[in-house]
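The records we work with from here on pair a chain with its fold. Taken together, the tokens spell out the fold as the letters spell out the chain. To see the layout at work, look at the sequence and tokens printed below.
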Amino acid sequence: QVQLVESGGDLVQHGGSLRLSCAASGRFFKINIWGWYRQAPGKQRELVARVTSGGATNYADAVQGRFAISRDSAKDTVYLQMNSLKPEDTAVYYCYANIYSFNLGSVDYWGQGTQVTVSS
């Protein structure tokens, strides 16, 4: 059973920084794609950033230049460094991974979510 466990959400002031972490556990062969999504109250879940196994990244326009996604393959962990945070970044942040295992093939997994609140 593959699980994604997030950490790092917190209350931070406008202009501050946070780093989110997400670790994958369980038996699998390869993590194809890591991603971070967020969902603010009353809004749909949206992509924030993602990184492929080859290292290619893409970001939502709203966070480009402020957020950085990175991964540590040895630790099966992905990070989201968030700088220059704004109140509109307030949301529950979800870790996502597309993971390949021999018995299941490629499957999408989600973390439980971590709250990020940016005060004005």
In short: The chain has a mean pLDDT of 97. The radius of gyration is 14 Å.
